[in-house]
Amino acid sequence: MVNPGAFHGARKAFLMGEKEAYSQAVDEGYAAECIAKIQRRFFKRFPIDLPDEAEPTAEELAKVDDDEIEPDFPEPERDKMSQQEYEAALDVLEERRKKLVFKKGIKRWLAYQYQKDHDVDPKTSGAHNPYRALLFKLTGQQFVRPRAKTACNVWRKTKRAEIEEKVKAKAIETSIGRKGLAALRDRIAKDMFNQLPAEERRRWVIVADQESRKALTIWENEVNSPASTAPEDRQRCILGLVRFIQPVLDLVCEATGWKASFTAGGPEPAHGGRLNIISIHSGKTSGDVALDFGALEREGIRKFFIPMYGRFLKR
Prior knowledge:
Blueprint: H1 9-28, H2 31-45, H3 58-62, H4 83-118, H5 132-139, H6 151-156, H7 160-174, H8 181-194, H9 198-224, H10 231-239, H11 241-256, E1 260-268, E2 274-282, H12 293-296, H13 298-313
Antiparallel strand pairs: 1-2
């Protein structure tokens, strides 16, 4: 698998030159289209059969035509081919398989660079889904009701260091492996909590009950209340729009055999109320680097559709 440090020389220089375009694409909501275009341009300059240590000459790079349509390669049909033709077709498929691995590597490299430049923690990115309540209203599928918190669990969050110190000591003493650490940690936390004075344990019961009631109130409001109009909540929904709509479009395309696009726009709180337009697409062209409508017709969309839709939003 390609890791963030796997690109060197001209390959790295090319990708470094695409960072600004990718960053803008993430901010404006068309990252998928941008990645596909970068991947397509990358392979035109650095074919998959070009050894890693080899680099194209300036003359070869000058001949690259980014607008040239790539051929589509169907699955080989063994009974309709000679042995030589079949083996050649298998070689083509193997090349495509390698290219898919590199496509994932390019995507990871771009995401890593963006996270590094913008100090984004991938563990927390997208953790809050503002569309849970909408999904519940659309499908009737309940999302998880918050569980009542126990006094011990609330207390142990304030004593992580002390608990972990005892866990490490006990694990060494009893030769407990990594798989047994979770159960050991729970047992030690419960033992420590039970050793607290009764009055202190009762106080933690009250705290746990208060936190449970608060979490339940928030959950009920998400289910039953209308969408918030607070600027920060609307901005959170705008940021989650692609994540919510993309699977819907993908299912539409799968069910109909069609291609689908979604466009939305309006004032964005994070940018002082300035108009922003987001387009989401599903369904792609043929070829090794498949492109959806937004990626293939990006210039036309920017030149004709965006101004037209922008005029509509201003009315």
